[in-house]
Amino acid sequence: MLGTRTPHSRVLIGAAAALGAIALGAAGLAAGSAQAAPAGHAAGVAPAAATAHRVLFDNTKAETAGNADWIISTSQPDPLGQDSTPSSETDWTGALSSWGVALQKSGGYVLNTLPSGRTITYGGTSAQDLSKFDTFVIDEPNVKLSAAEKTAVMTFVQNGGGLFIISDHNNSDRNNDGCDSPCVVNDLLTSNGVDNTDPFGFSVDLLDVSTDNPRAISDSSNPVLHGPFGAVTGSILRDGTTFTLKPGDNPNVKGLLYRTGYSGNTGAFFVTSSFGSGRVAIWGDSSPADDGTGQSGNTLYDGWNDPAGTDAALALNATAWLAGSGTGGTTGGTSTGTTTGGTTTGGTGTCASPGQKLLNPGFESGTSSWTASSGVINNSTQEAAHSGSYKAWLDGYGTATTDTVSQSVAVPAGCSATLSYWLHVDTAETGSTAYDTLKVQVLNSSGTVLATVGSYSNANAVSGYQQHTADLSGYAGQTVTLRFTGVEGSKLQTSFVVDDTALTVG
Protein backbone atom coordinates (compact mmCIF):
# COMPACT_ATOMS: atom_id res chain seq x y z
CA MET A 1 0.00 0.00 0.00
CA LEU A 2 1.35 3.40 -0.99
CA GLY A 3 -1.32 5.45 0.75
CA THR A 4 -5.06 6.00 1.00
CA ARG A 5 -7.49 7.63 -1.34
CA THR A 6 -8.83 11.10 -0.62
CA PRO A 7 -12.02 12.58 -2.05
CA HIS A 8 -10.00 14.34 -4.77
CA SER A 9 -7.10 11.93 -5.19
CA ARG A 10 -6.98 8.18 -5.58
CA VAL A 11 -3.76 6.35 -4.82
CA LEU A 12 -2.51 3.27 -6.61
CA ILE A 13 -2.40 0.47 -4.07
CA GLY A 14 0.14 -1.70 -5.84
CA ALA A 15 -2.40 -2.52 -8.51
CA ALA A 16 -1.17 -4.20 -11.64
CA ALA A 17 -2.65 -3.17 -14.96
CA ALA A 18 -5.86 -5.00 -15.71
CA LEU A 19 -5.24 -8.41 -17.25
CA GLY A 20 -7.30 -10.32 -19.73
CA ALA A 21 -10.78 -9.48 -20.95
CA ILE A 22 -14.41 -10.50 -20.78
CA ALA A 23 -16.91 -12.15 -23.04
CA LEU A 24 -20.12 -10.22 -22.81
CA GLY A 25 -22.86 -12.67 -23.06
CA ALA A 26 -21.46 -15.88 -21.60
CA ALA A 27 -24.97 -17.01 -20.76
CA GLY A 28 -25.51 -20.00 -18.53
CA LEU A 29 -22.54 -19.51 -16.18
CA ALA A 30 -23.27 -20.11 -12.54
CA ALA A 31 -24.05 -17.07 -10.41
CA GLY A 32 -21.05 -15.75 -8.57
CA SER A 33 -18.51 -17.78 -10.52
CA ALA A 34 -15.11 -16.23 -11.12
CA GLN A 35 -12.34 -16.76 -13.60
CA ALA A 36 -8.96 -15.12 -13.19
CA ALA A 37 -7.74 -13.05 -16.10
CA PRO A 38 -5.29 -15.06 -18.17
CA ALA A 39 -1.65 -14.33 -17.48
CA GLY A 40 0.36 -12.68 -20.19
CA HIS A 41 -2.44 -10.48 -21.53
CA ALA A 42 -2.20 -6.78 -20.83
CA ALA A 43 -5.27 -4.62 -20.33
CA GLY A 44 -7.07 -5.10 -23.62
CA VAL A 45 -9.26 -3.09 -25.88
CA ALA A 46 -11.97 -5.61 -25.28
CA PRO A 47 -13.66 -8.15 -23.12
CA ALA A 48 -12.65 -11.79 -23.48
CA ALA A 49 -14.72 -14.89 -23.79
CA ALA A 50 -15.06 -17.57 -21.14
CA THR A 51 -14.77 -20.08 -23.98
CA ALA A 52 -12.39 -19.05 -26.75
CA HIS A 53 -14.00 -18.07 -30.05
CA ARG A 54 -12.25 -19.49 -33.10
CA VAL A 55 -11.71 -17.09 -36.01
CA LEU A 56 -10.26 -18.02 -39.40
CA PHE A 57 -8.97 -15.29 -41.74
CA ASP A 58 -8.79 -16.16 -45.43
CA ASN A 59 -5.67 -15.67 -47.56
CA THR A 60 -6.55 -17.91 -50.50
CA LYS A 61 -8.27 -15.37 -52.74
CA ALA A 62 -5.46 -12.92 -53.61
CA GLU A 63 -5.93 -10.89 -50.44
CA THR A 64 -2.35 -9.61 -50.76
CA ALA A 65 -2.44 -8.78 -54.49
CA GLY A 66 -1.37 -5.32 -55.61
CA ASN A 67 -1.30 -2.88 -52.67
CA ALA A 68 -3.56 -5.09 -50.57
CA ASP A 69 -2.17 -6.79 -47.48
CA TRP A 70 -5.31 -8.17 -45.87
CA ILE A 71 -3.67 -10.58 -43.44
CA ILE A 72 -3.27 -10.51 -39.66
CA SER A 73 0.28 -11.92 -39.75
CA THR A 74 2.85 -13.36 -42.12
CA SER A 75 3.00 -16.39 -39.84
CA GLN A 76 0.34 -18.70 -41.26
CA PRO A 77 -1.72 -20.54 -40.26
CA ASP A 78 -0.82 -19.58 -36.67
CA PRO A 79 0.02 -15.90 -36.07
CA LEU A 80 1.52 -16.78 -32.69
CA GLY A 81 4.49 -18.13 -34.61
CA GLN A 82 5.50 -14.52 -35.32
CA ASP A 83 4.93 -13.28 -31.75
CA SER A 84 3.16 -15.34 -29.11
CA THR A 85 2.38 -12.34 -26.88
CA PRO A 86 1.77 -9.39 -29.21
CA SER A 87 1.24 -6.03 -27.55
CA SER A 88 1.07 -3.73 -30.57
CA GLU A 89 0.00 -3.97 -34.20
CA THR A 90 3.58 -4.11 -35.44
CA ASP A 91 4.28 -7.29 -33.47
CA TRP A 92 2.41 -9.04 -36.27
CA THR A 93 2.93 -8.10 -39.93
CA GLY A 94 -0.08 -7.34 -42.08
CA ALA A 95 -2.56 -4.53 -42.68
CA LEU A 96 -5.09 -6.41 -40.51
CA SER A 97 -2.62 -6.89 -37.65
CA SER A 98 -4.44 -4.38 -35.40
CA TRP A 99 -7.59 -6.46 -35.77
CA GLY A 100 -5.78 -9.69 -34.97
CA VAL A 101 -3.72 -8.30 -32.10
CA ALA A 102 -6.80 -6.72 -30.48
CA LEU A 103 -8.61 -10.06 -30.51
CA GLN A 104 -5.52 -11.90 -29.27
CA LYS A 105 -4.98 -9.45 -26.40
CA SER A 106 -8.60 -9.80 -25.32
CA GLY A 107 -7.84 -13.37 -24.27
CA GLY A 108 -11.03 -14.77 -25.73
CA TYR A 109 -10.04 -15.75 -29.26
CA VAL A 110 -8.03 -18.37 -31.12
CA LEU A 111 -6.93 -17.04 -34.51
CA ASN A 112 -5.75 -18.81 -37.65
CA THR A 113 -5.19 -17.95 -41.30
CA LEU A 114 -6.07 -20.16 -44.25
CA PRO A 115 -2.83 -19.73 -46.23
CA SER A 116 -2.49 -18.98 -49.92
CA GLY A 117 -2.69 -22.12 -52.05
CA ARG A 118 -5.13 -23.88 -49.74
CA THR A 119 -8.81 -24.63 -50.36
CA ILE A 120 -11.84 -23.55 -48.33
CA THR A 121 -13.54 -26.67 -46.99
CA TYR A 122 -16.31 -27.61 -44.59
CA GLY A 123 -16.63 -30.98 -42.86
CA GLY A 124 -13.10 -32.14 -43.65
CA THR A 125 -10.12 -33.16 -41.55
CA SER A 126 -7.88 -30.14 -42.09
CA ALA A 127 -7.02 -28.08 -39.02
CA GLN A 128 -8.30 -25.06 -40.94
CA ASP A 129 -11.56 -26.67 -42.03
CA LEU A 130 -14.46 -24.28 -41.45
CA SER A 131 -16.21 -26.76 -39.16
CA LYS A 132 -13.47 -26.10 -36.62
CA PHE A 133 -14.16 -22.35 -36.47
CA ASP A 134 -16.91 -20.00 -35.32
CA THR A 135 -16.18 -17.12 -37.71
CA PHE A 136 -14.70 -16.91 -41.20
CA VAL A 137 -13.32 -13.54 -42.36
CA ILE A 138 -12.78 -12.96 -46.05
CA ASP A 139 -11.45 -9.45 -46.77
CA GLU A 140 -11.68 -8.21 -50.37
CA PRO A 141 -11.39 -11.53 -52.20
CA ASN A 142 -10.09 -11.11 -55.75
CA VAL A 143 -10.54 -14.69 -56.94
CA LYS A 144 -13.89 -16.43 -57.36
CA LEU A 145 -14.57 -19.28 -54.98
CA SER A 146 -14.85 -22.66 -56.65
CA ALA A 147 -18.22 -24.41 -56.69
CA ALA A 148 -17.12 -26.65 -53.82
CA GLU A 149 -15.80 -23.67 -51.83
CA LYS A 150 -19.05 -21.74 -52.24
CA THR A 151 -21.00 -24.74 -51.03
CA ALA A 152 -18.61 -25.07 -48.08
CA VAL A 153 -19.07 -21.43 -47.04
CA MET A 154 -22.85 -21.52 -47.37
CA THR A 155 -23.11 -24.78 -45.44
CA PHE A 156 -20.86 -23.36 -42.73
CA VAL A 157 -23.21 -20.41 -42.25
CA GLN A 158 -26.34 -22.51 -42.57
CA ASN A 159 -25.10 -24.76 -39.75
CA GLY A 160 -24.34 -21.90 -37.35
CA GLY A 161 -21.10 -20.25 -38.49
CA GLY A 162 -20.43 -16.54 -38.76
CA LEU A 163 -19.32 -15.08 -42.11
CA PHE A 164 -17.59 -11.67 -42.26
CA ILE A 165 -17.16 -10.33 -45.80
CA ILE A 166 -15.41 -7.12 -46.78
CA SER A 167 -15.99 -5.84 -50.29
CA ASP A 168 -14.32 -2.97 -52.12
CA HIS A 169 -15.32 -0.64 -54.92
CA ASN A 170 -16.21 -1.57 -58.47
CA ASN A 171 -13.22 -2.03 -60.81
CA SER A 172 -10.86 -2.92 -57.95
CA ASP A 173 -9.42 -5.99 -59.65
CA ARG A 174 -6.05 -6.16 -57.88
CA ASN A 175 -4.77 -9.30 -59.60
CA ASN A 176 -6.18 -8.48 -63.05
CA ASP A 177 -8.06 -11.76 -63.43
CA GLY A 178 -11.26 -10.06 -64.58
CA CYS A 179 -13.18 -10.37 -61.28
CA ASP A 180 -12.92 -7.91 -58.38
CA SER A 181 -14.44 -8.29 -54.91
CA PRO A 182 -17.98 -7.11 -55.84
CA CYS A 183 -17.87 -9.70 -58.64
CA VAL A 184 -16.66 -12.43 -56.24
CA VAL A 185 -19.26 -11.67 -53.57
CA ASN A 186 -22.20 -11.36 -55.96
CA ASP A 187 -21.15 -14.66 -57.52
CA LEU A 188 -21.24 -16.30 -54.08
CA LEU A 189 -24.73 -14.92 -53.49
CA THR A 190 -26.22 -16.03 -56.79
CA SER A 191 -24.43 -19.27 -57.67
CA ASN A 192 -23.46 -21.24 -54.57
CA GLY A 193 -25.27 -24.56 -54.93
CA VAL A 194 -27.05 -24.23 -51.57
CA ASP A 195 -29.39 -21.27 -52.07
CA ASN A 196 -29.04 -19.21 -55.25
CA THR A 197 -32.01 -16.93 -54.53
CA ASP A 198 -30.37 -14.07 -52.62
CA PRO A 199 -29.92 -16.04 -49.39
CA PHE A 200 -28.64 -13.13 -47.27
CA GLY A 201 -31.02 -10.46 -48.58
CA PHE A 202 -28.47 -8.05 -50.07
CA SER A 203 -26.38 -7.48 -53.18
CA VAL A 204 -23.17 -5.50 -53.75
CA ASP A 205 -23.65 -2.24 -55.65
CA LEU A 206 -21.27 -1.74 -58.57
CA LEU A 207 -20.07 1.66 -57.38
CA ASP A 208 -16.87 3.51 -56.59
CA VAL A 209 -17.69 6.06 -53.90
CA SER A 210 -14.55 8.14 -53.49
CA THR A 211 -15.09 9.46 -49.98
CA ASP A 212 -17.77 9.60 -47.30
CA ASN A 213 -18.15 9.06 -43.55
CA PRO A 214 -21.16 6.74 -43.15
CA ARG A 215 -23.05 7.07 -39.86
CA ALA A 216 -24.58 4.38 -37.67
CA ILE A 217 -28.31 4.05 -37.16
CA SER A 218 -29.77 4.63 -33.70
CA ASP A 219 -30.24 1.25 -32.06
CA SER A 220 -28.97 1.03 -28.49
CA SER A 221 -29.71 -2.71 -28.24
CA ASN A 222 -27.80 -3.76 -31.35
CA PRO A 223 -24.84 -5.97 -30.32
CA VAL A 224 -22.67 -4.81 -33.23
CA LEU A 225 -23.21 -1.10 -32.66
CA HIS A 226 -23.08 -1.42 -28.88
CA GLY A 227 -20.96 -4.46 -28.17
CA PRO A 228 -18.12 -5.62 -25.94
CA PHE A 229 -15.51 -3.51 -27.72
CA GLY A 230 -17.34 -0.18 -27.46
CA ALA A 231 -19.95 1.97 -29.17
CA VAL A 232 -19.99 2.46 -32.94
CA THR A 233 -20.95 5.90 -34.25
CA GLY A 234 -19.65 5.77 -37.79
CA SER A 235 -17.13 4.50 -40.31
CA ILE A 236 -15.02 5.80 -43.16
CA LEU A 237 -15.46 5.17 -46.89
CA ARG A 238 -12.41 5.82 -49.05
CA ASP A 239 -13.11 4.36 -52.49
CA GLY A 240 -15.66 1.74 -51.59
CA THR A 241 -19.19 0.65 -52.33
CA THR A 242 -22.58 0.12 -50.73
CA PHE A 243 -25.27 -2.55 -50.68
CA THR A 244 -28.88 -2.82 -51.73
CA LEU A 245 -31.06 -4.58 -49.18
CA LYS A 246 -33.83 -6.96 -50.18
CA PRO A 247 -35.87 -7.78 -47.05
CA GLY A 248 -38.40 -9.56 -49.22
CA ASP A 249 -35.73 -12.20 -49.85
CA ASN A 250 -34.47 -12.31 -46.25
CA PRO A 251 -36.40 -10.37 -43.57
CA ASN A 252 -33.42 -10.53 -41.18
CA VAL A 253 -31.21 -8.28 -43.33
CA LYS A 254 -30.42 -4.98 -41.61
CA GLY A 255 -28.38 -1.93 -42.54
CA LEU A 256 -26.37 -0.66 -39.57
CA LEU A 257 -24.40 2.16 -41.23
CA TYR A 258 -25.43 4.21 -44.24
CA ARG A 259 -23.79 6.46 -46.77
CA THR A 260 -24.64 10.12 -46.23
CA GLY A 261 -28.14 10.88 -47.51
CA TYR A 262 -29.26 7.25 -47.70
CA SER A 263 -31.41 4.98 -45.52
CA GLY A 264 -33.74 2.03 -45.80
CA ASN A 265 -32.87 -0.41 -48.57
CA THR A 266 -30.31 1.69 -50.46
CA GLY A 267 -26.88 3.06 -49.62
CA ALA A 268 -26.18 0.65 -46.76
CA PHE A 269 -22.45 0.53 -45.95
CA PHE A 270 -22.41 -2.10 -43.19
CA VAL A 271 -25.04 -4.83 -43.20
CA THR A 272 -25.90 -7.84 -41.06
CA SER A 273 -28.13 -10.78 -41.82
CA SER A 274 -28.69 -14.43 -41.00
CA PHE A 275 -29.00 -17.66 -42.93
CA GLY A 276 -30.09 -20.91 -41.38
CA SER A 277 -28.57 -20.93 -37.90
CA GLY A 278 -25.68 -18.64 -38.81
CA ARG A 279 -24.91 -14.96 -39.14
CA VAL A 280 -23.46 -12.73 -41.81
CA ALA A 281 -21.87 -9.26 -41.85
CA ILE A 282 -20.58 -7.31 -44.84
CA TRP A 283 -18.61 -4.03 -45.06
CA GLY A 284 -18.35 -1.89 -48.17
CA ASP A 285 -14.68 -0.89 -48.12
CA SER A 286 -11.36 -2.45 -47.15
CA SER A 287 -9.97 0.90 -45.93
CA PRO A 288 -11.65 0.93 -42.47
CA ALA A 289 -9.98 -2.35 -41.43
CA ASP A 290 -6.58 -1.31 -42.84
CA ASP A 291 -4.25 -0.27 -40.01
CA GLY A 292 -1.63 1.33 -42.25
CA THR A 293 1.07 -1.19 -41.39
CA GLY A 294 2.04 -4.28 -43.33
CA GLN A 295 4.57 -5.87 -45.59
CA SER A 296 7.01 -3.55 -47.34
CA GLY A 297 6.13 -2.32 -50.81
CA ASN A 298 2.41 -1.81 -50.16
CA THR A 299 0.66 1.56 -50.11
CA LEU A 300 -1.64 1.29 -47.10
CA TYR A 301 -4.01 3.63 -45.26
CA ASP A 302 -4.66 3.77 -41.52
CA GLY A 303 -8.41 3.57 -41.48
CA TRP A 304 -8.46 1.54 -38.27
CA ASN A 305 -7.47 4.62 -36.26
CA ASP A 306 -9.05 7.30 -38.47
CA PRO A 307 -10.92 9.65 -36.09
CA ALA A 308 -13.72 10.08 -38.64
CA GLY A 309 -14.96 6.60 -37.74
CA THR A 310 -15.08 4.06 -34.92
CA ASP A 311 -13.88 1.28 -37.16
CA ALA A 312 -11.97 -0.76 -34.59
CA ALA A 313 -15.08 -1.13 -32.45
CA LEU A 314 -17.14 -1.99 -35.51
CA ALA A 315 -14.79 -4.73 -36.73
CA LEU A 316 -14.31 -6.22 -33.27
CA ASN A 317 -17.95 -6.07 -32.17
CA ALA A 318 -19.01 -7.68 -35.44
CA THR A 319 -16.43 -10.43 -34.98
CA ALA A 320 -17.73 -11.10 -31.47
CA TRP A 321 -21.35 -11.15 -32.66
CA LEU A 322 -20.56 -13.46 -35.56
CA ALA A 323 -18.68 -15.79 -33.20
CA GLY A 324 -21.70 -16.04 -30.93
CA SER A 325 -21.04 -13.34 -28.30
CA GLY A 326 -23.75 -10.93 -27.34
CA THR A 327 -26.91 -12.84 -28.19
CA GLY A 328 -26.51 -16.34 -26.79
CA GLY A 329 -27.53 -17.80 -30.11
CA THR A 330 -24.86 -19.35 -32.28
CA THR A 331 -21.50 -20.72 -31.24
CA GLY A 332 -18.98 -23.29 -32.32
CA GLY A 333 -20.53 -24.11 -35.68
CA THR A 334 -23.71 -25.32 -33.98
CA SER A 335 -26.82 -23.52 -32.83
CA THR A 336 -28.13 -23.32 -29.28
CA GLY A 337 -30.96 -21.10 -30.50
CA THR A 338 -32.32 -20.39 -33.95
CA THR A 339 -33.11 -17.09 -35.58
CA THR A 340 -36.33 -16.74 -37.52
CA GLY A 341 -37.88 -13.47 -38.62
CA GLY A 342 -35.56 -11.55 -36.30
CA THR A 343 -36.54 -13.46 -33.14
CA THR A 344 -34.01 -15.58 -31.28
CA THR A 345 -35.26 -18.67 -29.55
CA GLY A 346 -33.22 -19.45 -26.46
CA GLY A 347 -33.38 -21.87 -23.59
CA THR A 348 -36.05 -19.90 -21.72
CA GLY A 349 -38.55 -19.31 -24.50
CA THR A 350 -38.81 -16.87 -27.36
CA CYS A 351 -36.48 -13.90 -26.90
CA ALA A 352 -37.66 -11.11 -29.19
CA SER A 353 -34.91 -8.67 -28.21
CA PRO A 354 -31.56 -10.39 -27.72
CA GLY A 355 -28.35 -8.47 -27.08
CA GLN A 356 -26.40 -6.54 -24.47
CA LYS A 357 -28.77 -4.30 -22.50
CA LEU A 358 -26.67 -2.09 -20.24
CA LEU A 359 -25.91 1.39 -21.53
CA ASN A 360 -22.36 2.73 -21.28
CA PRO A 361 -21.29 -0.69 -19.94
CA GLY A 362 -17.58 0.14 -19.76
CA PHE A 363 -18.10 3.63 -18.26
CA GLU A 364 -16.28 5.21 -21.21
CA SER A 365 -18.96 7.92 -21.40
CA GLY A 366 -18.46 8.84 -17.75
CA THR A 367 -21.58 8.86 -15.61
CA SER A 368 -23.95 8.65 -18.59
CA SER A 369 -26.76 6.12 -17.86
CA TRP A 370 -25.35 5.36 -14.38
CA THR A 371 -26.29 6.70 -10.95
CA ALA A 372 -23.15 6.84 -8.86
CA SER A 373 -21.62 8.36 -5.75
CA SER A 374 -19.45 11.40 -6.45
CA GLY A 375 -16.08 10.52 -7.95
CA VAL A 376 -16.78 6.81 -8.35
CA ILE A 377 -16.76 6.79 -12.17
CA ASN A 378 -13.45 8.26 -13.27
CA ASN A 379 -10.46 7.89 -15.59
CA SER A 380 -7.74 8.20 -12.97
CA THR A 381 -4.62 6.29 -13.94
CA GLN A 382 -3.91 5.49 -10.29
CA GLU A 383 -6.25 2.51 -10.59
CA ALA A 384 -6.14 1.05 -14.11
CA ALA A 385 -9.35 0.40 -16.00
CA HIS A 386 -9.87 -3.12 -17.25
CA SER A 387 -10.23 -1.73 -20.77
CA GLY A 388 -10.43 1.80 -22.09
CA SER A 389 -9.88 4.65 -19.62
CA TYR A 390 -12.91 4.79 -17.32
CA LYS A 391 -14.10 2.45 -14.59
CA ALA A 392 -16.12 2.57 -11.34
CA TRP A 393 -13.81 2.85 -8.33
CA LEU A 394 -15.72 2.32 -5.10
CA ASP A 395 -14.20 3.10 -1.67
CA GLY A 396 -10.43 3.20 -1.13
CA TYR A 397 -10.35 6.12 1.31
CA GLY A 398 -9.40 4.37 4.53
CA THR A 399 -12.33 6.06 6.28
CA ALA A 400 -15.95 5.03 6.81
CA THR A 401 -17.41 5.26 3.30
CA THR A 402 -20.34 3.87 1.35
CA ASP A 403 -20.13 4.17 -2.45
CA THR A 404 -22.71 2.97 -4.97
CA VAL A 405 -23.09 2.73 -8.72
CA SER A 406 -26.32 1.49 -10.31
CA GLN A 407 -28.37 1.30 -13.50
CA SER A 408 -31.98 0.42 -14.19
CA VAL A 409 -32.51 -2.05 -17.03
CA ALA A 410 -35.41 -3.92 -18.60
CA VAL A 411 -34.92 -7.68 -18.96
CA PRO A 412 -37.00 -8.80 -21.97
CA ALA A 413 -39.58 -11.51 -21.39
CA GLY A 414 -38.74 -15.00 -22.64
CA CYS A 415 -34.99 -14.40 -22.52
CA SER A 416 -32.12 -15.89 -20.60
CA ALA A 417 -30.03 -13.16 -18.95
CA THR A 418 -26.47 -13.07 -17.64
CA LEU A 419 -24.87 -10.26 -15.70
CA SER A 420 -21.10 -10.11 -16.16
CA TYR A 421 -18.44 -7.72 -14.92
CA TRP A 422 -14.75 -7.49 -14.12
CA LEU A 423 -13.67 -6.74 -10.55
CA HIS A 424 -10.32 -5.79 -9.07
CA VAL A 425 -9.88 -5.59 -5.30
CA ASP A 426 -6.98 -3.72 -3.66
CA THR A 427 -6.59 -3.56 0.11
CA ALA A 428 -4.32 -2.52 2.95
CA GLU A 429 -6.07 -4.99 5.24
CA THR A 430 -4.46 -8.31 6.15
CA GLY A 431 -5.91 -11.67 7.06
CA SER A 432 -9.23 -13.24 6.16
CA THR A 433 -11.59 -11.08 8.22
CA ALA A 434 -14.04 -9.11 6.06
CA TYR A 435 -13.72 -5.49 7.18
CA ASP A 436 -14.75 -3.86 3.89
CA THR A 437 -17.38 -5.29 1.53
CA LEU A 438 -18.85 -5.03 -1.95
CA LYS A 439 -22.32 -6.35 -2.74
CA VAL A 440 -23.86 -6.78 -6.18
CA GLN A 441 -27.63 -6.65 -5.88
CA VAL A 442 -30.83 -6.72 -7.91
CA LEU A 443 -33.54 -4.27 -6.80
CA ASN A 444 -37.14 -3.76 -7.90
CA SER A 445 -38.65 -0.42 -8.93
CA SER A 446 -39.46 0.37 -5.29
CA GLY A 447 -35.84 -0.05 -4.25
CA THR A 448 -36.38 -3.35 -2.46
CA VAL A 449 -33.44 -5.75 -2.71
CA LEU A 450 -34.61 -8.84 -4.56
CA ALA A 451 -31.30 -10.69 -4.42
CA THR A 452 -27.61 -10.33 -3.69
CA VAL A 453 -25.88 -11.98 -6.66
CA GLY A 454 -22.29 -11.20 -5.68
CA SER A 455 -20.53 -10.54 -2.38
CA TYR A 456 -16.83 -9.68 -1.94
CA SER A 457 -14.53 -8.23 0.69
CA ASN A 458 -10.96 -7.20 1.37
CA ALA A 459 -10.24 -10.93 1.71
CA ASN A 460 -10.81 -11.24 -2.07
CA ALA A 461 -7.94 -8.91 -2.95
CA VAL A 462 -6.03 -9.92 -6.10
CA SER A 463 -3.32 -8.30 -8.19
CA GLY A 464 -5.45 -8.17 -11.36
CA TYR A 465 -9.05 -8.32 -12.48
CA GLN A 466 -11.34 -11.34 -12.21
CA GLN A 467 -14.42 -12.16 -14.24
CA HIS A 468 -17.68 -12.68 -12.37
CA THR A 469 -21.09 -13.63 -13.71
CA ALA A 470 -24.59 -14.13 -12.33
CA ASP A 471 -27.66 -15.69 -13.91
CA LEU A 472 -30.53 -13.18 -13.92
CA SER A 473 -32.89 -15.17 -16.14
CA GLY A 474 -35.42 -15.23 -13.31
CA TYR A 475 -36.04 -11.50 -13.82
CA ALA A 476 -37.14 -11.81 -17.47
CA GLY A 477 -40.10 -9.52 -18.13
CA GLN A 478 -39.13 -7.13 -15.32
CA THR A 479 -37.37 -3.80 -15.05
CA VAL A 480 -34.79 -4.04 -12.29
CA THR A 481 -31.91 -1.99 -10.91
CA LEU A 482 -28.44 -3.50 -10.79
CA ARG A 483 -26.45 -1.95 -7.95
CA PHE A 484 -22.86 -2.25 -6.74
CA THR A 485 -22.45 -1.10 -3.12
CA GLY A 486 -19.04 -0.75 -1.47
CA VAL A 487 -18.87 -0.28 2.28
CA GLU A 488 -15.53 0.60 3.86
CA GLY A 489 -14.59 0.69 7.55
CA SER A 490 -12.92 3.53 9.38
CA LYS A 491 -9.29 2.41 9.26
CA LEU A 492 -7.41 0.70 6.42
CA GLN A 493 -8.50 1.16 2.81
CA THR A 494 -10.01 -1.33 0.38
CA SER A 495 -10.71 -0.37 -3.24
CA PHE A 496 -13.34 -2.20 -5.30
CA VAL A 497 -12.82 -1.42 -9.00
CA VAL A 498 -15.54 -2.50 -11.44
CA ASP A 499 -15.34 -2.35 -15.25
CA ASP A 500 -16.73 -3.84 -18.47
CA THR A 501 -20.17 -4.71 -17.22
CA ALA A 502 -22.84 -6.35 -19.35
CA LEU A 503 -26.34 -7.73 -19.11
CA THR A 504 -26.56 -10.10 -22.03
CA VAL A 505 -29.88 -11.66 -22.99
CA GLY A 506 -30.71 -14.22 -25.59
UniProtKB/TrEMBL annotation:
Top-rank lineage group of the source organism: Bacteria
Region (Disordered): 326-355
InterPro entries xrefs: Class_I_gatase-like, Galactose-bd-like_sf
Protein name: Hydrolase
A GO molecular-function annotation: hydrolase activity
Entries under SUPFAM superfamilies matching the protein: Class I glutamine amidotransferase-like (SSF52317), Galactose-binding domain-like (SSF49785)
Ranges of biased composition (kind: Gly residues): 326-349
Signal peptide range: 1-36
Protein keywords: Hydrolase, Signal
